[in-house]
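Progress narrative, Year 2. Work on Multi-component regulatory system-4 from Streptomyces spinoverrucosus advanced from sequence curation to structure prediction during this period.
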Amino acid sequence: MADDPTPPDPAPVGPVPAVRPFLVTAGRVAGGGEAASARTMPVETQVVTTAEGLDALDRLSFEQHDIVSVCKQPQSIAEIAALLRLHLNVVRVLAEDLRTAGHLAVYVPNAAVTHDASVLRRVIDGLRAIPDSRGVLRDTD
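Result:
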């Protein structure tokens, strides 16, 4: 309808990749690096492009270019994967490569805060306060 005031959902930034994830990462998996960095990045890890990343943008491979480009504004690993339609672990591996090269700054949330039950309760309460598409609030428990 022409009178519909709601804008259409934003399309993902990139097309659905036709290349298998293991080809993009050369067979590497998230958390498979050195002992100090062998932990997998949590999905809520915030990533932002550095000045070096912006300078190198035209020299990066397709997926790396897209990640650095999308991270001009801080994004979580999960948001990057969704926006670019890439597998979550592919984004983790490439983000770690880009961090090592100095193209991305990575901010891992404090584990003590993310495991605090009161934070989780506030998130749940906030989500319940959002009405559904009919304007109805979700149940309270």
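The chain has a mean pLDDT of 74. The two ends are 37 Å apart (CA to CA).
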